[in-house]
Amino acid sequence: MFRVTQFMQEILDPRPIGPRRNPPGPVVIWNLIRRCNLTCLHCYSISADKDFPGELNTAEVFRVMDDLKAFGVPVLILSGGEPLLRPDIYDIAQRAKAMGFYVGLSSNGTLIDETNVDKIAAVGFDYVGISLDGLKATHDKFRRKPGGFEAALGGIRLCRDAGAKVGLRFTLTQDNAQDLPGLLDLMEAERIDKFYLSHLNYAGRGNRNRKHDAHFRTTRQAMDLIFDRCWRHVRAGRPLEFVTGNNDADGPYLLAWAQEYFPERAEHIRQKLLQWGGNASGVNVANIDNLGNVHPDTMWWNYCLGNVRERPFSRIWPDVSDPLMAGLKRSPRPVKGRCAACRHLAICNGNTRVRAWQTTEDFWAEDPGCYLTDEEIGLVGSEARHQGSEVVVTP
Ligand SMILES: C[S@@+](CC[C@H](N)C(=O)[O-])C[C@H]1O[C@@H](n2cnc3c(N)ncnc32)[C@H](O)[C@@H]1O
Ligand code: SF4
Q1: What are the residue boundaries of the Radical SAM core domain, all occurrences included (predicted)?
Q2: For the chain, how big is the Rg over CA atoms in Å?
Q3: Which of 16, 40, 109, 338 would you label with 90, given CA atoms 20 to 30 Å apart?
Q4: Which atom of ligand 1 is nearest to the CA of 130?
């Protein structure tokens, strides 16, 4: 997670660098159910409208929550599938809140209506993230549901009016990039608190459909637009939040933006970016799936570290006998290719290992989704291969 707003605030109001804070436990994204009323083209969990047997029951979820709390996990993001299809979602969320977790709900929004919005509001979720992957026609095509856009927007409005902090989540591909300006306008017009731009990760249906990933030029234009909007809001003192995910090259790209427009602040921003430290999979971000399997993050569903029915999360997570976890926890990570040679490695931490693995079967190969040019990452001569403007070519 890359908090664009926070870095831009540092330009207006720089705060001391201070020591790097290591959270006691990871943020846990928890896919409580795999069933979903939609079948989106990019869905990492390959969800569908059917039952998936063997999911954790309420008592098991509560037991895992106790372990997570004792282990120092600060944040639970309750996700799916569609988490609102779980009848016990309110009990789980209420208990999580009572235990002192920061609790987020990750929903497609289409099932939020007058009958359940009060129950959602009563939980007091710290954040409700609802996906909009484009304006009406694009969203409905992407999410394969006629009427899906109107239903999701209805859910957003209901949550907003009930006083919840709401965020709009958009996964960028080559097919929906044209709608980004319109979605940002919508966010402003609808007084939505937060915008999360997620880059496509190569997992589940997102891997099968990876040829639709945004071209580098498209990604750069999208990031320029996010930076531009975010800066306008920061300068105007409006508390809208812009965050991005699944491409840690966004950090060095923001540094280049600061170097161009605020050179006097660039070194401060660089120090803050180093403190952020880039990709946190397997370290400060964890995933538990619907069956209780633990993964280094949500995009690693086909790589299992253990199951909470057999071993508590608190024992699975620190175990570095697993080669992927050992490498993810190393600093610097044992990355190769462009990532190894990159002058920004300490900022982005080698970006997204899932894309590297899905395209090469090597955890540590360079991330093919890095959209920075050779010049930007400091590559010269024979190492230099791409200039950041051609399309992503993935095998
Ligand atoms: C799996 S969904 C579950 C919650 C809910 N059903 C929804 O769609 O928001 C969680 C988030 O991950 C995003 N997502 C799914 N597959 C992805 C992928 N391959 N790359 C990047 N983001 C993805 C979705 O768009 C959504 O915002
Ligand atoms: S991305 Fe969300 S809404 Fe779409 S199929 Fe997956 S779980 Fe369902």
Answers
A1: 22-238
A2: 20
A3: 40
A4: 9
Residue 53: give the domain boundaries: 2-332
> Could you tell me the pTM of the whole model?
0.95
Q: Closest by alpha carbon to 205, among 42, 37, 18?
A: 42
Which residues, in sequence order, are CB contacts of 98 under 8 Å at separation 6+?
Answer: none
Across the chain, mean pLDDT equals: 95
If one counts the domains in the chain, the total is 1
Question: What count of residues does the chain have?
Answer: 395
Give domain status of residue 104, yes or no. yes
**CATH code of the domain in which 278 resides:** 3.20.20.70
Residue labelled with tokens 């016990």: 88
345 within domain boundaries: no
> Residue type for 389, please?
S
| pLDDT, position 55 | 98
Quote the crossing angle between the two packed helices 58-71 and 89-98, to the nearest 10°.
20
Give the Å distance between the CA of 143 and the centre of ligand 2: 8
The reply to whether ligand 2 has any atom less than 6 angstroms from the CB of 107 is no
The pLDDT tens digits for 325-361 are 999 999 999 999 999 999 999 999 999 999 999 999 9
pLDDT recorded at residue 21: 78
Gap from CA of 108 to ligand 2 centroid (Å):
7
Instruction: Assess if residue 316 is contained within a domain.
Output: yes
Q: Is any ligand 2 atom within 6 A of the Cβ of residue 36?
A: yes
Please name the helix (run of DSSP H) or strand (run of DSSP E) that holds residue 359, with its range, or none.
helix 353-360
Residue 370 is assigned to a structural domain of this protein: no
**Which residues contact ligand 1 via a Cβ below 6 A?**
36, 42-45, 79-80, 82, 106-108, 131, 169, 171, 198, 200-201, 203, 206, 246
Model pLDDT for residues 128-166, shown as the tens digit of each residue = 999 999 999 999 999 999 999 999 999 999 999 999 999
Mean pLDDT over residues 184-212, rounded?
A: 97
CA distance 48 to 42: 12
